[in-house]
Design brief:
The complex is a heterodimer of chains A (240) and B (256).
Chain A (H helix, E strand, L loop, with lengths): L1 H8 L5 H28 L5 H34 L2 H7 L4 H34 L6 H29 L3 H17 L24 H32 L1
Chain B lengths: L2 H11 L5 H18 L3 H4 L7 H34 L3 H7 L4 H38 L7 H28 L3 H12 L2 H4 L12 H13 L10 H22 L2 H4 L1
Helix pairs in contact in B: 1-6, 2-4, 2-6, 4-6, 4-7, 4-8, 4-10, 6-7, 6-11, 7-8, 7-10, 7-11
Chain lengths: 240, 256
């Protein structure tokens, strides 16, 4: 119920076209990159998907994270802008349900965006690396891995924007977090667990035991962030 | 109302916005890794750049590529949303003040935010280079004149970009599009500085300028001199177009 309600709320905010536009833009990056500079990549010895991800995933992930942050800002901005949130609080519903409704909605949009991006990557590897046999399985593994690692950043950016009444504060904090994520070195395991740094990880080229560690860490982060948000909402309600 | 007092009014509007705090946190985070990784600067001598120059330019490059443009997008959101949130813009438009002046006053505030952020980054540079000097026993501090010259270059080269962001936030009243287009336009600037038509893309100017300064200081890298001729006229024309469009469009969505 609350997910369908959230869908109705975002109808006229331009949320869906913005996400689709961002996804298509991110999907164009590998295609354009391969079309312009295919010579730099074709001769490399790595598996083709790893070559493609190494070359393009940083920028695609950056676009994804920026989309997440602006999407989360908008979703709470429409609540705070004309005090709609006060009405939501008077309804016989938990405030955290609204939060998780928004989370499910962004996650759903993200699965669509990732499908567009994966389709673009599949197109690139079919066109420029025709002798690649394990394409389907590798792509699916990457797809699942990236989605799991993106979820903590969705949750955290929703927490930030639910905590701040003003959109520029939440956007500013989100931008600072993304910037921090780009400054952290990927070699340090603990630092790369920062929720906004996780979406920059790729499945290809990561050792299998590391993959499991990342997945477990992402799930733990999600649980912690979700509990923190529920507690935060209760505390804020008690003091308002 | 004179233009100056309008600018003063605009400044008092954003007084309680906490934007300065956000910008300050960003600059602190920018320099922290530089302090911890100060010893990396000695390895860069193979490129022919001295450690103290590398320390400064790497930090400024980190700012110019993402942090600075993204903060300017946040600044445009701040300025437009403080007015729109409680229909304050309607009251401003009802005053006998020309909308062009109003629009330009807000743009001046945005420029001031940019200047504040660059000044804070420069201030943090002096602090962090002093700390790095203490840790590494090597003089990282450069002459203030040189540092301020680099900072000034970033500021001047960012004016077209800021004008573009300002046009976005004035023309596109749906916030997610103005934010999204603004943030998304920053990401390709890394690619654009390597192309021949970089001068047509205002978002990469600050990064291009600082990257070419790096090329000048590193004797072994290829010298990528900034060619002023196609750039300055194009940048001036782009700035004027962006400002003109935003002045014309300012307040039109509300006046309908």
């Amino acid at each position: 119920m609350s997910v369908s309600l959230e869908c109705k709320k975002i109808k006229r905010t331009g949320f869906i076209p913005a996400f689709l536009g961002g996804g298509i833009l991110a999907a164009l990056i590998p295609i354009v990159n391969m079309a312009v500079r295919s010579k730099n990549y074709i001769g490399l010895s790595n598996p083709p998907l790893q070559i493609l991800l190494d070359a393009n995933w940083q920028m695609m992930a950056m676009l994804n994270v920026l989309l997440i942050i602006s999407g989360a800002c908008i979703m709470y901005h429409i609540e705070y802008a004309d005090n709609a949130i006060q009405r939501m609080k008077t309804l016989p519903r938990r405030e955290s349900n609204m939060f998780f409704g928004k989370f499910v909605l962004i996650m759903g949009m993200f699965i669509i965006i990732f499908s567009i991006e994966v389709a673009a990557l599949a197109f690139c590897s079919l066109k420029w690396f025709p002798h690649y046999t394990d394409l389907g399985i590798d792509l699916l593994k990457n797809f699942g891995y990236c989605i799991i690692l993106t979820l903590p950043s969705i949750l955290l950016s929703l927490v930030i924007s639910s905590a701040c009444k003003n959109m520029w504060v939440s956007l500013g904090i989100g931008v600072v977090c993304v910037f921090t994520a780009t400054m952290l070195s990927a070699k340090n395991f603990v630092l790369s667990l920062f929720p906004f740094a996780l979406p920059f990880q790729t499945f290809a080229g990561t050792a299998p035991d590391k993959v499991m560690q990342y997945i477990v860490a992402a799930i733990i982060e999600m649980v912690i962030i979700a509990i923190a948000e529920i507690v935060f909402l209760k505390v804020r309600r008690a003091f308002e | 109302m004179s233009f100056l007092s309008l600018v003063g009014v605009e400044f008092s509007k954003i007084r309680r916005s906490k934007i300065i705090l956000i910008l300050l946190i960003a600059t602190v985070i920018l320099w922290l890794p530089s302090i911890f990784n100060a010893d990396m600067n000695f390895k860069m001598q193979s490129e022919g750049i001295s450690p103290e120059n590398n320390f400064l330019i790497q930090g400024f490059m980190g700012m110019a590529w993402f942090m600075f443009p993204a903060s300017m997008v946040v600044g445009t959101v701040l300025i437009s949303q403080t007015e729109r949130s409680n229909n304050g813009i309607l009251k401003m438009l009802a005053l006998p003040v020309s909308t062009v002046k109003l629009c330009l006053a807000k743009f001046v505030v945005l420029l001031a935010l940019a200047a504040v952020q660059i000044l804070m980054t420069t201030g943090m540079y002096f602090i962090s280079s002093a700390i790095a000097t203490g840790i590494q026993n090597y003089e990282f501090m450069l002459s203030p004149l040189f540092v301020f010259k680099e900072a000034g270059l970033i500021f001047l080269s960012s004016i077209p970009m800021i004008a573009f962001f300002w046009m976005l936030s004035v023309c596109i009243t749906t916030p997610i599009f103005s934010i999204g287009i603004g943030l998304a336009s920053i990401v390709p600037s890394v690619l654009m500085i390597n192309t021949k038509i970089w001068f047509a893309y205002p978002m990469c100017y600050p990064f291009y300028v600082i990257a070419s300064e790096y090329g000048k200081l590193a004797t072994k890298l290829s010298d990528s001199e900034v060619s002023l001729i196609p750039w300055l006229p194009v940048a001036a024309i782009l700035t004027i177009i962006c400002l003109a469009v935003s002045c014309i469009r300012f307040g039109q969505a509300e006046r309908r």
